[in-house]
From TrEMBL:
InterPro entries: AB_hydrolase_fold, GCE-like_dom. Residues 91-321 form the 4-O-methyl-glucuronoyl methylesterase-like domain. One of its GO terms (biological process) is lignin catabolic process. It holds the Pfam family GCE_fung. Keywords: Hydrolase, Lignin degradation, Serine esterase, Signal. It comes from Clohesyomyces aquaticus. This is (4-O-methyl)-D-glucuronate--lignin esterase.
Length: 387
């Protein structure tokens, strides 16, 4: 019965499987645009009119992010094996003569019946995970080091010169964790009910993982700021107005989170044929849960950017009839990566609906921010009626 509920939950109306989609052209000529690009307008120049056109637009957006921002997300290796030892799930990947192993720790819940739902926590959970859901602790900095480009197990396997930044390398690791869960019943985890979370830089990481790994049922990115909730175009304007905020230009100085190509574009953001609202749109099909948890007390996170960027991304969910799959909760508190009780109801609702298959309402969109809400400042396109 539970599997039937989940099957119904993750079926979007009017959408079938993606057919073969074209690759990006070698050269992309995108007119400079200070507003957020239209997610319904592919590079072909013909705006979407049908729901079944979205899967190829989604693939195009993923290719854009890989080319400009994150680097290449490699396919599944030739071989993946896994085995439990105590609480540790050891995962080994190999291609030809190359191999690499990493492990995650699984803490089973104290209530419920196996196989259990689980949340993959980047570096450990900063959100309260209920006693009905397992916690899978993923040491993502072992996969892609935070203290120098080309270091970590991903680069041991693919080479230190691989163009992937740490964010997409860690997302590849999440994909392998789910491979392992699918083949390891001894882990006692239901691979169809797996979420992902992280805070700050790991908030970005968990957002990107869910956007690129369709087998993630729920993403709970916390206080990730730009490239999780916020858009680079809006962040640039905030900076120009005198508020210190994380911008594309700043983020490539000393951090190895993004691809080796991204620095080429950080001073020409309006020429990019994408912005981070399109990252949110990647969750709309197949429809998966996404709850962005943000903080209005920290200017550096770009609260107004986070709100307006997410609002733009949610319009794809609206067009596809799954608006309530995407929630946003923005609350003021002084401790970065703390979790105020005011945000607990929406966290509980999203976990219940997307991991526990309960009939819980998730139409949540709220902020206590004092900024002016003006979507027209950033959006000059309308939500189409898709047949």
């Amino acid at each position: 019965m539970l599997n039937l509920l989940l099957s119904l939950l993750f079926t979007a109306p009017g959408l079938g499987q993606a057919s073969t989609c074209p690759n990006l052209p070698a050269a992309i000529n995108y007119a400079t645009n200070p507003k957020l690009p239209d997610p319904f307008l592919p590079l072909s120049g013909t705006r979407l009119s049908k729901k079944d056109q979205w899967p190829c637009r989604k693939e195009e957006i993923r290719q854009l992010f890989q080319r400009y921002s994150y680097g290449t997300f490699p396919p599944k290796p030739e071989a993946v094996t896994a085995a439990m030892s105590g609480n540790a799930l050891k995962i080994t990947v190999s291609e030809g003569s190359k191999s690499m192993s990493f492990s995650v720790n699984i803490k089973l819940p104290s209530s419920g019946v196996a196989p259990y739902p689980a949340i993959i926590a980047y570096g450990g959970a900063s959100l309260p995970i209920p006693n009905t859901v397992a916690t899978i602790t993923y040491q993502n900095f072992e996969m892609a080091a935070d203290n120098g480009r080309g270091k970590g197990k991903f680069y041991d396997f693919y080479g230190s010169n691989h163009n992937a930044g740490g964010m997409i390398a860690a997302a590849w690791g999440v994909d392998r964790i789910i491979d392992a869960l699918e083949m390891t019943p001894a882990a006692k985890i239901d691979p169809k009910r797996v979420g992902v979370t992280g805070c700050s830089r790991n908030g970005k990481g968990s957002m990107i993982a869910g956007a690129f790994v369709d087998r993630i049922a729920l993403a709970l990115p916390q206080e990730g700021g730009q490239s999780a909730a916020g858009c680079w175009r809006i962040a640039d304007e905030i900076q120009k107005n005198g508020t210190k905020v994380e911008t594309a230009h700043q983020i490539v100085n000393g951090d190895s989170w993004f691809s080796t190509d991204f620095p080429k574009y950080v001073d020409m953001v309006p020429t990019l044929p994408w912005d981070n609202h399109m990252l949110h749109a990647l969750y709309a099909y197949p429809p998966r849960g996404l709850l962005i948890i943000e903080n209005t007390a920290i200017d550096y996170l770009g609260p107004t950017s986070n709100y307006h960027c997410a609002s733009a991304g949610r319009k794809v969910h609206e067009a596809l009839g799954v608006k309530d799959y995407f929630g946003f909760s923005q609350n003021s508190h002084s401790d970065h990566c703390g979790f105020p009780k005011a945000q607990q109801p929406e966290l509980t609702a999203f976990i219940e609906r997307f991991l526990l298959a309960k009939d819980t309402k998730t139409d949540v969109w709220k902020t206590d921010g004092k900024f002016t809400i003006d979507e027209t400042r950033w959006i000059d396109w309308a939500v189409p009626s898709l047949s």
